[in-house]
Amino acid sequence: MGALDLKSVTKSFGTTEVIKGVNLEVAEGEFCVFVGPSGCGKSTLLRIIAGLEDASGGDILLDGKRVNDVAPAKRELAMVFQSYALYPHLTVRDNMGLALKQAGVAKAEILKATDKAAGMLSLERLLDRRPAELSGGQRQRVAIGRAIVRTPKLFLFDEPLSNLDAALRVATRIEIARLHRDLGATMIYVTHDQVEAMTLADKIVVLRDGRVEQVGSPMRLYNDPDNTFVAGFIGSPQMNFLKSAALGQMGETTGIRPEHLNIRHGGPISGTISHVEKLGGETLVYVRTEPHGLLTVRLFGEHDYGVDSTVQLDIEPSRAFHFDADGKRLR
Amino acid sequence: MGALDLKSVTKSFGTTEVIKGVNLEVAEGEFCVFVGPSGCGKSTLLRIIAGLEDASGGDILLDGKRVNDVAPAKRELAMVFQSYALYPHLTVRDNMGLALKQAGVAKAEILKATDKAAGMLSLERLLDRRPAELSGGQRQRVAIGRAIVRTPKLFLFDEPLSNLDAALRVATRIEIARLHRDLGATMIYVTHDQVEAMTLADKIVVLRDGRVEQVGSPMRLYNDPDNTFVAGFIGSPQMNFLKSAALGQMGETTGIRPEHLNIRHGGPISGTISHVEKLGGETLVYVRTEPHGLLTVRLFGEHDYGVDSTVQLDIEPSRAFHFDADGKRLR
Amino acid sequence: QTTLTIESWRNDDLLIWQDTIIPAFNAQHPDINVVFSPSAPAEYNAVLNSKLSAGSAGDLITCRPFDASLELFNQGHLADLTDLAGMANFSDVAKSAWQTDDGSATFCVPMASVIHGFIYNADAFAELGIEVPTTEAEFYAALDKIKADGTYIPMAMGTNDQWEAATMGYNNIGPTYWKGEEGRKALIAGEQKLTDPQWVAPFEQLAKWKDYLGDGFEAQTYPDSQNLFTLGRAAVYPAGSWEISGFNTQADFKMGAFAPPVAAAGDTCYISDHTDIAIGMNAKSPNAEAAKVFLDWVGSPEFATLYANALPGFFSLNSTPVEMQDPLAQEFVSWRGKCEPTIRSTYQILSRGTPNLENETWNASANVIRGSETPADAAKRLQDGLASWYDPQK
Amino acid sequence: MASKKPVRWHIAVFLAPAVLVYTAIMIIPLFGTLNLSLFNKGPDGVGFVGLGNFATLFGDPRWSASFWNALGNNAWFFLIHMLVQNPIGIALAAILSTPRLRMAAFYRTAIFVPTILSFVIVGFVWKLILSPIWGIAPGLLDIVGLKTLFAPWLGREEYALTTLALISVWQFVGIPMMLIYAALLSIPDEILEAAEMDGITGSSQFWKIKLPLILPSIGIISILTFVGNFNAFDLIYVAQGALAGPDFSTDILGTFLYRTFFGFQLQLGDPYMGSAIAGAMFGIILLGVCVYLFGIQTRLRRYQF
Amino acid sequence: MAKSRSSTGRTFAAHAILITWTVIALFPVFVTVINSFKSRRAIFADPLALPWPEHFDLVGYTTVLKQGDFFGYFQNSMIVTVVSLFFVLLFGAMAAFALSEYRFKGNTLLGLYLALGIMIPIRLGTVAILQIMVAGGLVNTLTALILVYTAQGLPLAVFILSEFMKTVSDDLKNAGRIDGLSEYAIFFTLVLPLVRPAMATVAVFTMIPIWNDLWFPLILAPAEEVKTITLGSQIFIGQFVTNWNAVLAALSLAILPVLVLYLIFSRQLIRGITAGAVK
Ligand SMILES: Nc1ncnc2c1ncn2[C@@H]1O[C@H](COP(=O)(O)OP(=O)(O)OP(=O)(O)O)[C@@H](O)[C@H]1O
Ligand SMILES: Nc1ncnc2c1ncn2[C@@H]1O[C@H](COP(=O)(O)OP(=O)(O)OP(=O)(O)O)[C@@H](O)[C@H]1O
Ligand SMILES: [Mg+2]
Ligand SMILES: [Mg+2]
């Protein structure tokens, strides 16, 4: 239970096609993360899978069964909405417990399940409040709690952690990973957070403008992107794209990740430092170069570089990616 | 114009005190970031500054003038709401232009201003849509656009980038920084993102449960936290807290950031690897130790460590922080 | 050029006034413009009272008989017309409905009275071989015969609207039992009571009618009754003479009329020849002169002829006899010669207090016909109600 | 919430037009009239009688019998509306608000049409339909084999009021329907979608999600029904006349008041007793409204979406 | 919304219920309309017979059109209804906004005060109102009717609208305040558009009694030039004889304009007007 298969799924709102033929297989128990720029259709795809939106074309198969016309309630999945969509008239506890109550689960069990979810999400003290009395992050946690108490076979999470602070985010992320392991549930998860995507995913789906650009394991996408889009999208800070010609490299564009660009006296690329960002554990140095434009160098630890000083950069050739004029990877 | 001064500000909802006496000075033109766990009162404080909530006690001074009783509209500030609060019946353009129109700005100028903001936020193609037809990230961008077209002296941002993808987030972050520089405007910014906080802030305010824990520049907080809470909150992944006694260090607890914990054969702390997270540019190794519990080691680049293998860890003593039993820093 | 506005409840007469009466008046008085402005009859009293109180009422006011108009006069809304020249054309009886109790002042020019009786479907009577009844026995025999035949509903009357039962039932046949004016005056004087046999008798008659009414008469409305009769489904219709013009246009069979039957052949018959409509002047009218000119003309035989012929069934109260064309109307008016006329028993003085005797009579008549109250109970209730406020009856 | 200290003129500006027009054209005339309830005609003209009229209304057995009869009938009239009109209205609105329902606009309009009709038509057509004479209702009942159930309902004391109340329900069901429909529309789609995901669909979605969210609107329609019913007049008046037959079995406060205040037929209008009745009605309705405003409304949570 | 979310069974049931009630709702209307095309005789001979072909009779309509200036009456009714409606909605919404948005002393009491008007039949104030109009020289003007109907419609409008205004998100109004919108601008540009469904509802409720009212036209403006359609139709209701063809024809015609107004307003009942406003 829980395997998902999308076959040439399309979706239009009026005349604008938002999902442009998506094919995707998610195996049972897999953790699949959707990433992509804002507005590329992640939420829409999630809603189509949930049955909240009709696909304009194509088939949605759950466990091999076509479910295009099956009601959301019958698909046995749980969803965390990007907008939370909490029941405003119910307390936190009732928000989380309603689905179970509807399913006829015994009171004591509902209590146990909601208590457990509340504990997991540090919501214990808020159980009797209503959504209007919660902070943004608290609401988001309630929305997550509502999904997980039901322990269905397929979870859909739409940016579930975006409003949480770092500590809570790590904690919740780990909880979700554990849930995934324990339940063997299939999960589809939308996020903009690189760390979440890299750490949680069995499989990352990179979407762009309603199309799947590449599907693969996190490290696969990181180390072997198919095109400039995926290369640029996976990894933060973004990959630097340099002009191959000026470097004497093959292809049109050479991609090199900020962590593989070093500041080395006498390096082949020279430029001036335009900006330095100190993040504590690492330092980002932005170097303006000709003809490559602004390049990002990521350094481990704290470093002091003076803005406007001239530096030379060096690339690790083994870590460079080459792309043709269309952005396609040359291997 | 734009300096803010909070004096013993308190706020209660019914009987629960949510803001418990906050004192804070923000100088004119300063970029001040509020961080803190979910539900600690960041949004509430922002709303008090905006005049949307009445403070239960204390004074709010803008440019030295007490504004407790001044209407929000008169405070000349712009705000991005955590819930976006877009005008559902207006198009994206009108959402952004309404304030200017209200201020009697000429049509042509409004058009210019909205076009500029739209360009900045990649909203050009969406100008004629209504909020209901936008994705979550697009809505958030409209909310930001609405604030920035007005270029007032004080900006309040409540997690403005939480729903944006990495690339857009970086781009918008840079725009906000530029805006800050160009306008010389004072900005108060709530975020959960370490990178945003560290890169944008002149001053970070760490809140906890309605109280200010520490105020200071990003590197100050990173390198010189006052207590375990701040130490743990700033920096991601979180600082490791070890038992001082077992290490022969002073105080009760010794804090060491993951990037300052090294895997070194023969190191003083030994443990087994429980989990490895590869993020591409860096690798996080989770090591279970006695008596310190799970410690995080952050390594630059990609590394292969076998789960369950035994490793020894070494701390950089100069980077260690010492805290007493109450969590207060020992210097 | 002055304009006079007439307040009236006679929506029905709008065309007659516009096409016949006003042009006739204008032929003599081209300088007086007259506007006939009726309102719906049910609201007339309330509307008129409000307008008079606020001072926006028209110059000429159509008068209901007795207390409704008397009250207006007492409040100073109606002008005293005692000295109007045209008043000389009316008998005291005609004027009595629009006079103060002592008869010292008259405030409306009488226009018409209506007579009660029964209209019947002459074709049906002929078909069933029924003679026009004159006595109670003949009356019920006729009804029985119609009922037995089954083609026609014997009598068209319903109790839904209540006033049908009281006006076309009780006040139609009642005078025969309480002997017209004699009983009515005795009641006012307190010499008879409503519980006396002559006052209970009409209710007893009504109670018998139940069997001759159509199915579901309880929910039958007044227009239903009219339609039942004019569509030829009912044979006898307890009527007021005002029905004549309507029935003439609607029924496509021959009609006849008979007066309320008497107990035994040769008894004196009594009819209700009720003073019903008059016209007075708004005391605050700015056009009093013109209004008086008009009222004078209303008192003239010319008006009487016009009106009575335009509205067969509304019989002139003018002392000058009026020549009428309509045979049915002629039949009705002929009873004036044969029978003793009286007016409706409840109208003068007796409906001044609470409970209102007229309204109670509606209710009682309907109840008695429906069988939900016995004649004796109904009479007792009316008597108690009357006695509760009317001193001579205490 | 805006701050409190400066004078907030805008509040006055927002309120002024309504308060002025309303006070001048409604409150002053109405209370001028209600004031009459403290006066009455005595032997020496109109004089102040204090609560004397009310003493008569409740003390004099004739007046009080009529009053209690009217009040009782009115209560029954109201009860039928609450039990029939409002549930039907809510149910229809709930069905109509089903997303993607075809012809919804047609149904909505059709159901609302009776509300548009003037009482004259309503009275005429229902009397025509229910008339035992012209055969529509008996005929229709005959078709379904229930002819024996037919009775001249409007003419029977035991049925007339209920029949009229049901006619009124027929006519006005569009009003709760519209209000509830508008309230249902303001529930955000996402919340309903979340419910769908939770397996709360169909009627349980109505009971568990929609109903709690529209409770304030149900409160409103209840109080509007209450106020409307206790002020009702026209339907009874056009169907049964001011005497509200048969035998006053359909007499409600509105008709009782009309007869007394404006008079009817030979009965002269009595503004003094009429005002006393109006005062009593006003008291009853005010009591109901206060119970609603202070007792119920504050307890019905409103949710901002 | 997805078709996967609508089951055929439930859709069928929904249609069945709606059709049933539609039939119940429309049957009497149908009876009215068919009979307006028949002669009196035909109406009562067989009220359910279709007016086609042998019963067809336009006598009702010809009578109506012959008698009085019916188009003028229509126009008067339209003016009175629309103008009153405008003021009721404007003033009512303004007052409702003040009551629901601001806390001030006497807020609840003022709300109650404004609701008093729905508790007493306004007819009782007739004489005083008429006196006001006489004093103001407004008798037989449409202005008099507009004033009365505005006053009469306000209580209900305030009552209903203030309830709906409370559901408009505070964040949204606050966003407006921060944007420098005055309270007036917040009301007119933000709140009013968002309570459109409620405004439409109130408009419909207010319009019907105004359109169908007989009393005040009769008292305040009975003159021919200012007669409303309802009053105009009354001419056919006589003391003893009612011209049912004409009444039915006139009132059937009178349904049309209100129906049009209703359709216009009910288009404002749009699903999801606040969608996408807040997270
Ligand atoms: N209207 C209210 N009634 C009662 N409690 C409230 C209300 N609004 C907020 N709170 C509580 O006040 C606290 C602070 O809320 P606030 O929204 O300021 O948090 P926050 O720091 O912005 O959190 P987050 O990061 O999750 O957005 C929370 O615990 C919240 O539950
Ligand atoms: N109801 C609608 N009508 C028209 N366009 C819509 C509608 N809903 C979404 N869209 C458009 O469809 C595209 C995909 O939207 P979707 O919500 O799936 O994006 P997303 O990938 O979830 O973005 P985000 O990361 O910002 O949430 C967007 O460009 C959006 O503007
Ligand atoms: Mg999305
Ligand atoms: Mg917040």
UniProtKB/TrEMBL annotation, chains A, B:
SUPFAM superfamilies: MOP-like, P-loop containing nucleoside triphosphate hydrolases. One of its GO terms (cellular component) is maltose transport complex. Gene3D superfamilies: 2.40.50.100, Nucleic acid-binding proteins (2.40.50.140), P-loop containing nucleotide triphosphate hydrolases (3.40.50.300). Keywords: ATP-binding, Nucleotide-binding, Transport. Residues 4-234 form the ABC transporter domain. GO terms for molecular function: ABC-type maltose transporter activity; ATP binding; ATP hydrolysis activity. InterPro entries: AAA+_ATPase, ABC_transporter-like_ATP-bd, ABC_transporter-like_CS, ABC_transpr_MalK-like, ABC_transpr_MalK/UgpC-like, Mo/tungstate-bd_C_term_dom, NA-bd_OB-fold, P-loop_NTPase. Pfam families: ABC_tran, TOBE_2. PROSITE patterns: ABC_TRANSPORTER_1 (PS00211), ABC_TRANSPORTER_2 (PS50893). It comes from the Bacteria. Belongs to the ABC transporter superfamily. This is ABC transporter ATP-binding protein.
UniProtKB/TrEMBL annotation, chain D:
The keyword Chloroplast does not apply. Keywords: Cell membrane, Membrane, Transmembrane, Transmembrane helix, Transport. It is a multi-pass membrane protein. Belongs to the binding-protein-dependent transport system permease family. This is Sugar ABC transporter permease. InterPro entries: ABC_transporter_permease, MetI-like, MetI-like_sf. The chain crosses the membrane at residues 12-32, 75-96, 105-126, 132-154, 161-184, 213-236, 272-295. It comes from Pseudotabrizicola alkalilacus. The keyword Ubl conjugation does not apply. PANTHER family: ABC TRANSPORTER PERMEASE PROTEIN, INNER MEMBRANE ABC TRANSPORTER PERMEASE PROTEIN YCJO. It holds the Pfam family BPD_transp_1. PROSITE patterns: ABC_TM1.
Automatic annotation (TrEMBL), chain E:
It is a multi-pass membrane protein. Keywords: Cell membrane, Membrane, Transmembrane, Transmembrane helix, Transport. It comes from the Bacteria. Residues 74-265 form the ABC transmembrane type-1 domain. GO terms for biological process: transmembrane transport. InterPro entries: MetI-like, MetI-like_sf. It is found in: Cell membrane. The keyword Transcription does not apply. CDD domains: TM_PBP2 (cd06261). One of its GO terms (cellular component) is plasma membrane. Its main location: membrane. The chain crosses the membrane at residues 12-34, 78-99, 111-136, 142-164, 185-211, 246-265. The keyword Phosphoprotein does not apply. Belongs to the binding-protein-dependent transport system permease family. This is Carbohydrate ABC transporter permease. It comes from Pseudotabrizicola alkalilacus.
